[in-house]
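Invent a record, attention on tokens:
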Amino acid sequence: MIKFIKNFRKDEDGAVTVDWVVLTAAVVGLAIAAYSAIETSSTGLITAAGTAVTGQNDGFGAGGGGA
């Protein structure tokens, strides 16, 4: 039993697994944060572009002379 405990204490395979789990969780967290920031910015950009396009006079609307 003592030999088993000593071997278990020296074994580092579990520590490597924990390191990979923590690293993967950090990468996933950063990806979620980046997605959230990009989504917020792109929504604002799309709204601004839609407003700008709507406000343009193509010359064929009300009061426009056209060609």
Notes: The longest helix spans residues 13-54. The CA atoms of residues 22 and 61 lie 59 Å apart. DSSP finds two helices and no strands in the chain. Helices lie at 2-10, 13-54.
